Amino acid sequence: MKKVGVAILGLGVVGSGTYRVLTENHDRIAKSQNLDVQVEAVLEINPERARMLGIEERKITASIAEVVGNPAVDVVVEVIGGIEPAKTFITAALKNGKSVVTANKELISKCWAELETYARRNHVGLYFEASCVGGVPIIRTLTEGMQANNVQSMVGIINGTTNYILSKMSKEGSDYATALRQAQECGFAEADPTADVEGYDASYKIAILSSLALSERVTVSDVFRQGITDVQAVDIRLGAELGYVLKLLAIAKNTEKGVEARVHPAFVSKTHPLASVDGPFNAVLLHGDMVDDIMLYGRGAGSLPTASAVVSDICYAATRSEPWYAPFRNTDDPAEAVKINTNFLSQYYLRLFVSDQKGALSRVAGVLGENGVGIREVLQKGESKDGFATVIFITHQTEENDMSRAIEGLKQLDEVKSVESLIRVEQ
Amino acid sequence: MKKVGVAILGLGVVGSGTYRVLTENHDRIAKSQNLDVQVEAVLEINPERARMLGIEERKITASIAEVVGNPAVDVVVEVIGGIEPAKTFITAALKNGKSVVTANKELISKCWAELETYARRNHVGLYFEASCVGGVPIIRTLTEGMQANNVQSMVGIINGTTNYILSKMSKEGSDYATALRQAQECGFAEADPTADVEGYDASYKIAILSSLALSERVTVSDVFRQGITDVQAVDIRLGAELGYVLKLLAIAKNTEKGVEARVHPAFVSKTHPLASVDGPFNAVLLHGDMVDDIMLYGRGAGSLPTASAVVSDICYAATRSEPWYAPFRNTDDPAEAVKINTNFLSQYYLRLFVSDQKGALSRVAGVLGENGVGIREVLQKGESKDGFATVIFITHQTEENDMSRAIEGLKQLDEVKSVESLIRVEQ
């Protein structure tokens, strides 16, 4: 049986989960993969974490040099997160001929080209299934299941924190601040939730996933990003009346005008496959030109689910004779940047306070029409306040630029007290 | 770039789809896989099919010997279906050192051990992603995504014909015969629909999938099989009243009492992830001990979706230096058969005609209780006919043996005119 020596860098949530999976399911892995996977070293500045897991003293170190110089180590697992020291550690591992498995979405989305250069030069691999959608094998599906397809679109819920918050707001009618607090209390949101709620986490992931799907390098700066911090309970409620559910969507599309890569709140119809993806669950809906629609669903985070993906990569790395590399020119050179389209085509939900005087609605609809915005649905609530009523429009597919101009036009109207909300609607 | 020569055996729905995918997406495959995949030979007894696809005359043959003796052929794709001549052709290919990619669920489920012997002896591979769930990469997920897990259960809708029929019956209130006829008219059911509607197709697939999931050889004879030919519209309607949707489920479970592998109609709650899987779509819900729940969803059949899986396997075969083999002792030897549990634990939907006389319900409930069957829900319709009323029970989790005895007991009661339906309910 082939022996595989693993070093785990970091014994936080995912690191400790990885250790547990490798020990508890050692025999399962041996039987199904014919691999004897052993943890040979653990890098952790807090040795108490290692001792609590029952790791032998001789395997615990705080020295990356010791780890990457250890001949018994074949694969280095980086589960610290963030740019540094993870980048330095991964670079050291690659330069010392160790393949690397990581869960680090920020690092891969920002430094993939550079790290892959070291991997290629040293003829080792760089694997990151665990960086996207937890234990759900979306990367494996893209690289080993979708080879026959041009992936034309990818739409997903790929951040558990924001999905948990929005699901709470939908089910309980609560406001954002309340739902965020509940998420923090239940461990679904960090004390500092910025990375999740501002959409950074999802933007890192969609940069990685869309690169693999489209076989073109999509960088974080190519991703349009808008988080959920401005979401209002009233829009979730009114959207529900119209048959919509609000999600933070991560979207990648290949269009004639270029690649779209974007993260933003969006309504989906309650019959849409993603509408019922709730709480900490994630899902990715792919459309391939040959396979048609495929959806993958599962836990997007969590100690054991994410560790499952880490260990899947350890096995994948160990059973390949040649390392896997990104199947596109992996570069940060702006001259080779993929052509990006920011003039998205989308439907919109638009909520306004409109004067309840005669002719007001006509003028509002007129401005929309003049700017190329077609109206699909209208909801005007009967109650008005201070002479203004709430009016909601759901538009037909509209270009972003046209919508922006229409909004400017609406703001000029006396009849429009305010443009309260503009939320995309994904078909 | 590595050149891969492919021979396609059969130009039916999947074969012609495979040819289309390989020609239309040749460059996509070249770019993302670094493979120049060329169709070198086509085996088809009706040469007109080949000409209509524009295949060069010199590549068309009716001789398997010519195909497997062709040095330009690396991978043989069998998409004829059925046992013979597919088995003879695949055996010839393996013995002549060609890897085989097939969509043939019946052949693999019945002859896997024998064919794998030839594959191993000749150091080539046998791949069959396309045999299960069309283009959805369930096999790739099990073998390359779930390595860290003990898969404890797998529940799926894996036959498009029966799902289409049941979806029609649910949406339109039609009876089985009407829905079957509609399915045949729309091309979702064969003229002879037996293989699908009697559950054979699903039983072949669940034998294959549960073997991979559990790393134990599960054969077709291990699978409990019950099709949809006895499904009555009244039960679909009454089930819907109680909040349930009827599906043909394929289930594999690893329990302390042994492996359960079964195909049968079952109700699921309308909030169950599989409830909304409609028409020709399939889905598989897996539970791994580390990754928790994962679901894969997509088109389970169709020319291009299935061809997408065929081509995925061609690429997978060509990019491995060592062939993949089943990670368990692959044998038909009854002495090594996996331990099977047929005393399933399940909830049940039970519909009876019960006398509307005093005490009748009490006696019926009494028989259930005496046989260890707990009652979770009861629905008695007010209308009675000839002194008998329809009564429906939803039981708690009950062992199959207990339920069988309870049914026998009920049939003995004068108060029970007939036991109309017994349908499992899957949680």
Describe the overall structure.
The structure is a homodimer. Chain A has about 425 residues and is α/β, with parallel strands linked by helices. Chain A has 3 domains: about 1-130, 3-Layer(aba) Sandwich (Rossmann fold); about 140-300, Dihydrodipicolinate Reductase, domain 2 (2-Layer Sandwich); about 345-425, Alpha-Beta Plaits, CATH 3.30.70. Chain A has 15 helices and 17 strands. The mean pLDDT of chain A is about 95.
Outline of the structure:
By secondary structure, chain A is an alpha/beta fold.
What keyword list fits this structure?
Alpha-Beta Plaits, homodimer, 28% strand, 15 helices, 3 domains, 37% helix, elongated, eleven-stranded mixed β-sheet, 427 residues, 17 strands, Dihydrodipicolinate Reductase, domain 2, Rossmann fold, alpha/beta, six-stranded parallel β-sheet
Cα distance, first to last residue of chain A?
50 Å
Largest interface: A-B, 54 and 54 residues
Q: Based on the structure given, which CATH architecture of the largest domain in chain A is correct? A: 2-Layer Sandwich
Query: How many H/I helical runs of chain A?
Result: 15
- CATH topology of the largest domain in chain A, what is it called? Dihydrodipicolinate Reductase, domain 2
Q: What is the CATH C level class of the largest domain in chain A, in words?
A: Alpha Beta
- Characterize the quaternary organization of these chains: homodimer
Structural class of chain A: alpha/beta
Can you give the helix content of chain A as a percent range?
Answer: 25-40%
Number of domains of chain A: 3
**Tally of DSSP β-strands of chain A:** 17
> Beta-strand percentage of chain A?
25-35%
Q: Any idea what the CATH superfamily of the largest domain in chain A is called?
A: Dihydrodipicolinate Reductase, domain 2
Question: pLDDT under 50 segments of chain A (min length 5)?
Answer: none
- Radius of gyration of chain A (CA) equals 24 Å
The best one-word shape of chain A is elongated
Average pLDDT for all residues of chain A: 95
Major sheet summary line of chain A? 11 strands, mixed
